[in-house]
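Assemble and predict.
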Amino acid sequence: MTKYTDQGKQDTRSGYGEGMTELGRTNPNVVALCADLVGSLKIDTFIAENPERFFQVGIAEANMMGMSAGLTIGGKIPFASTFANFATGRVYDQIRQSIAYSDKNVKICASHAGLTLGEDGATHQILEDIGLMKMLPGMTVINPCDFNQTKAATIAIAEHHGPVYLRFGRPKVANFTPVDQKFEIGKALMLNEGTDVTIIATGHLVWQALLAAESLENQGISAEVINIHTIKPLDDKAILDSVKKTGCVVTAEEHNYLGGLGESVARVLATHHPTPQEFVATQDTFGESGTPEQLMEKYGLNNKAIEEAVLKVLKRK
Amino acid sequence: MVHKVNSGHPGGSLGCTEFFVALYNEVMDLKDGFDMDGIGEDLFFLSNGHISPVFYSVLARRGYFPIEELNTFRLIDSRLQGHPTTHEGLPGVRVASGSLGQGMSVAIGAALAKKLNGDDHLVFSLHGDGELQEGQNWEAIMYAAGNKVDNLISTVDRNGQQIDGATEDVLPMGDVADKFRVFGWDVLEIENGNDLEQVVAGLKEAKSRTGKGKPVCIVMTTEMGNGVDFMMHTHAWHGKAPSDEQLATALEQNPETLGDY
């Protein structure tokens, strides 16, 4: 199996921060907005280097989304960032009307997505954001897997015209994608070729999928692992090419099984190539306080859960 | 327009007719044609999007699109949606509005873009008084004053009416001008927003107060349904179309009307 090395654990939000630093130096139209969470979003360097291009809106996310829409009028590329919960559910109508329906070139950048922000608990965790955002017509939805990929995605979305939801997280996780890998919106990445089962993972679950694939290999099971960093538009072809070969699929995401990556994959399969599928995702529940590792264990979002799902789906082939 | 499709919002539209006529003909510095970025010209954002009939009427007469197109208002495949939108590419509209309370934030963003671009033109916005019940306005009002967005002129249509009745009965709002003042805005009032000369003078006065470190607010008192006796002094015509007889009566009272486009 293809070997991936953790280059040293880092948080994906710091990848966003580094991406913003680079954009600040290379693209004069990029502006940043934040709702009283500058430290958490890691954009201190962007602000220090481009104070005139940063707007601190205070604890007022609705105003931040509207201001971002307005800033596009005149050619700016606003990156509006806060926690995922406050960047989506709290301001859904503002995003829907002022940004998505109005086709504004706003990048909504959301940290602390999913369960793994940990101890703050369910008020600050969100497991519904992918569903909320992918349902908005014209919205691109991206969930990169590690520091390097988040940085690359941040830089890439500035070149894409249209609203984007970029989702990342708080915990330090394995950083394993190549530092110079080009980020192509909507293009799935084949991480490991296999023949028995396809594992399609997004975000923090991609590394867990690789761990699971390694363990499965030791049991004589050949798992194909695909990194779907872009949930919308989905790379239908990569999914179909893989399942036509393996005949079964496990999807893995730090999100509710309702509305997430798994359902998007199921739609593609049901339409073009009906295939047994198991979902590694939360089961229509809120989260709770705990360490990231404890939460991933309790809610079935780690390598062990992926392995179990693979063994289950193999029996359904 | 509203009569033709038997739907729409005539009351607030009639109440703001003088405002739109003044703004687009006497006050704003506009380029020929339309581009979304609007660099080098004044911009306008309609936050209370339901008064689209008057917005569309004035945009058409200012040359943004053919007057005949007003006949498509609210019909299938039209660029003149029930509430204004950029989605169908109608020239003159820069953001969708209708879900209330969002326009001031957008106007602030556009005003900040103008400052970043070194563009000394102004941004205007219009808001219903009932619309101020939406909390996002107060986030925006606080931001604009706190950050000296002084190239913004936001007008509140103080007609005292909303769908369920008088604003004072639905949710008493107190003194709107005082509220803006204590938030740090420069506030002026137009006592009769249905007197064209007063509106022009008020808007020009507001323009003279820009660039002085404060956003400018105009509290403009209007009469909903102005010019049509049976539509005045009531909230009943917020979102209701007139019958054939009522339309004939209304047009009789406004002989200068160009016809029901």
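The interface with chain A takes residues 36-39, 43, 45, 85-87, 94-99, 101-114, 116-117, 119, 135-136, 139-140, 142-143, 146-147 of chain B (CB under 8 Å).
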